[in-house]
Inverse folding.
């Protein structure tokens, strides 16, 4: 078991190391769509690359998610392991819509031996997700 301080230090080291190992400007929150953002997620047991729908206006989330559902087959052609979840529960207990690709290898943010594979997964998967977004950006934005 790790203390809170040790766990926090490892999380910080994980993200710092990722940024230094793969210096790149990611799209993430810069989609120009409120509450529609790409994220890297990693914790004690799993990691994933996500597209979260968190607009304060629930109707906007619904419209954007439905628009992405209409592109599902095209996204699955690029990322076959993608999961569409219209009721994803965050650690906070809040439910959001999330489209994500889980890292399928053994992973823990507390185990440095698992970091490199996760970093490579992050880069490869996010690049595909971003390219897909840029390809269909105009269509996606038509939803709102």
């Amino acid at each position: 078991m790790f203390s809170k301080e040790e766990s926090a230090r490892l999380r910080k080291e994980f993200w710092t190391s990722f940024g230094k190992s793969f210096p790149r400007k990611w799209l993430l929150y810069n989609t120009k769509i409120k509450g529609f953002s790409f994220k890297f997620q990693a914790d004690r047991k799993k990691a994933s690359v996500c597209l979260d729908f968190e607009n304060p206006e629930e109707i906007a989330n619904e419209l954007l998610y439905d628009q992405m559902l209409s592109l599902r087959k095209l996204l699955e052609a690029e990322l076959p392991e993608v999961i569409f979840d219209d009721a994803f529960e965050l650690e906070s207990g809040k439910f959001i819509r999330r489209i994500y690709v889980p890292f399928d290898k053994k992973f823990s943010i507390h185990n440095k031996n698992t970091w490199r594979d996760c970093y490579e997964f992050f880069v490869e998967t996010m690049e595909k997700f971003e390219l897909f977004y840029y390809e269909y950006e105009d269509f996606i934005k038509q939803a709102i």
Q: What stands out?
A: Residues 4-141 form one domain. Residues 22 and 123 are 8 Å apart (CA to CA). Strands lie at 36-42, 47-53, 83-89, 95-102. The chain has one domain: 4-141.
